[in-house]
Design a protein that fits this description.
Blueprint (H helix, E strand, L loop, with lengths): L1 H15 L6 H19 L6 H31 L2 H6 L4 H15 L2 H14 L8 H28 L4 H6 L1 H7 L14 H5 L2 H13 L7 H33 L6
Length: 255
């Protein structure tokens, strides 16, 4: 655990010094402006909570995907891939911890979205259940790290997998109901959405903004955690298999 905690702190420090991730802190206010403008001019300021949650969730998932995709390519570019894989710490565990560190850093985008709502539109979005909100953000970050580790496995095998990395964003936003609730999607899409952790995360965060008592929040938190754990296990298996293959073919450090 001490090793993984060291990895977490190191990744957090590297994130602070890496300008590449700053793009989500630029796009989050812009997305918030667009979504809030639509809802305010449609006469539905009561839906402001949806408009501030969606850009923040999009930022978290975008950072998780980007980190998962860049970890392998950066280690290969630095010539440190073999040393990292040969270290005593499990490489899949290191990958999950590094993605989680970056994703948690991305939680600052929630504050950005809230500030845009208040500063530009004069809207105050209250968090009625702060404990549930915090739990939802933490468990969602865990689920994002686990799910994104599957993308990392593809980069171990194929450096050209960046196209897939980019293509995974918007399908997850749609199926996760980050802006439009899953209940408004076509009937045939709803069962698929249930298998996407983002759909549960979005429900939990919206429930945290609703003055009404949350309905079965423990079950929803458990669903996010289970889906994230399934993603982490799948990512661990895939990374292990891909590492064995590239070690056999001698292409571990191939860029």
């Amino acid at each position: 655990m001490r090793t993984l905690w060291t990895v977490f702190r190191l990744q957090a420090l590297m994130t602070l010094r890496t300008p590449d991730i700053a793009h989500v802190f630029v796009t989050t206010p812009l997305y918030t402006l667009v979504f809030l403008s639509i809802q305010v001019h449609a006469g539905r300021p009561d839906l402001a909570g949806y408009a501030v949650l969606a850009p923040a969730l999009m930022a978290l998932w975008s950072m998780a995907l980007q980190t998962a995709g860049e970890l392998v390519s950066e280690e290969r570019d630095r010539g440190t891939m073999e040393a990292v894989v040969a270290a005593p710490a499990s490489y899949p565990a290191v990958v999950n911890v590094r993605i989680a560190a970056v994703t948690l850093f991305g939680a600052l985008s929630f504050a950005e979205a809230w500030l845009v709502a208040y500063g530009v539109f004069g809207l105050t979005v209250r968090i009625e259940h702060p404990g549930l909100f915090l739990a939802a953000v933490l468990v969602s970050a865990f689920a994002m790290a686990g799910t994104a580790s599957c993308v990392c496995a593809l980069f171990v095998l194929a450096p050209s997998a960046r196209v897939l990395q980019n293509a995974l964003s918007f399908p997850f936003y749609l199926l996760g109901g980050v802006l439009v609730p899953v209940s408004h999607l076509p009937d045939w899409l709803r069962p698929l959405s249930e298998a996407v952790f983002l759909s549960w995360s979005a429900r939990l965060l919206r429930a945290a903004l609703d003055p009404a008592a949350p309905v079965r929040p423990a079950g929803a938190l458990g669903a996010v955690a289970l889906l994230g754990l399934a993603g982490a296990l799948a990512g661990t298996l895939l990374i292990g298999r891909m590492l064995r293959r590239v070690t056999t073919t001698g292409t571990l450090a191939q860029t």
